[in-house]
Amino acid sequence: MRIDLHSHSDVSDGTRPPSEVVRRARANGVDVVALTDHDTVAGWDEAAAALPDGLTLVPGVELSCKHDGRSLHLLGYLFDPSEPALAAELARIRDDRVIRARTMVERLRELGADVTWERVRALARGEAVGRPHIARAMVEAGVVASPDEAFTRDWIAEGGRAHADRYALDPARAIRLVGAAGGVCVLAHPRTRRGGYVFSDEVIASLAAAGLAGIEVDHPDQDAGERAALRGLARDLGLAATGSSDDHGALTGDRLGAETTAPDAYAALVAASTGSAPVSSPVSAGADAVSSGTGAVPPGTAPEAR
């Protein structure tokens, strides 16, 4: 069984609609895929409605958090998106994303970059507008040659000339909120130096004490040495070690299924969840065999966390 627990659609900063994400996942031989758009569950309905035969959908989200002044991302799975406290925080994060993005566009224009808010908003199909949308607008305007060039201190990287901060959750609080909604959290890409997402064993242990369920070990931006260290840490802390493509469509080379999660790790996450359940197509019996969650989200009924 091939299980990919981290992917994005154009509801946040991917380039493919949720329906296309699930179709591409199956075409790439994936059996289970998690849709984890940034700070929104708005793509769940479309993905579930388009689920191809043989594919199981894990409803999820990538939560924006901050630890010691640095961005930290948590993957939340199988929670009830209508739980009031979590839904309110997701809405607050999304609202502040818009404020932050508008501020960054204004700063770019002050620096002479011909980028407009109208174009950035058009590139962000969903509610979760982010820096990748600004970077794409910068490429279109000829300010930079590629999105990667926008993520420097000259432009919109953290500490950059046009960067602006935004609201983000404390990670321990985020873990508690997802847990209260019946879900589980996995720490996303904790050793990816690209983007500065590097966190010590001590930080990860503190999150485990707060209720963290797993660590994303096998990620395209983590090398073999980091993976081995994280796998050992997950074992020592009693956490699930997951693997994921972190696919963003064309921006990352349509790499769904490039990294995968072992079935036992997936089963442990599902067994610990009570807020929602994986959504399976009629012939996804293999995925159902390792699912023990309740409250499945049928196609077309997953509420948005507004």
Keywords:
10 strands, 306 residues, globular, two-stranded antiparallel ribbon, eight-stranded mixed β-sheet, disordered C terminus, alpha/beta, single chain, 11 helices
Question: What this model shows, in words?
Answer:
Helix content is 36%, strand content 15%. With 306 residues, it is of the alpha/beta class. The strands form 2 sheets. Strands 1, 2, 3, 4, 5, 8, 9 and 10 form an 8-stranded mixed sheet that branches. Strands 6-7 form a two-stranded antiparallel sheet. α9 (224-237) links the parallel β8 and β9. The longest helix is centred in the N-terminal third of the chain and has 27 residues, at 84-110. The model is unreliable at 289-306 (pLDDT under 50).
Written as H for each helix and E for each strand, in order along the chain, the element string is: EHEHEEHHHHHEEEHEHEHEH
Provide the gyration radius in Å: 18 Å
Distance between the termini: 34 Å
Shape: globular
Residue windows where pLDDT falls under 50 for at least 5 positions: 289-306
**Share in helix:** 25-40%
How many separate helices? 11
What composes the largest sheet?
8 strands, mixed
Would you tell me the overall average pLDDT? 91
Count of extended strands: 10
**Oligomer description:** single chain
**What is the strand content?**
5-15%
Name the structural class.
Answer: alpha/beta
Topology diagram in text:
Elements: E1 3-4, H1 18-27, E2 32-35, H2 44-49, E3 56-67, E4 70-77, H3 84-110, H4 117-123, H5 131-140, H6 147-150, H7 171-180, E5 184-187, E6 191-192, E7 197-198, H8 201-209, E8 214-218, H9 224-237, E9 240-243, H10 263-271, E10 279-280, H11 285-289
Parallel strand pairs: 1-2, 2-3, 5-8, 8-9
Antiparallel strand pairs: 3-4, 3-10, 4-5, 6-7
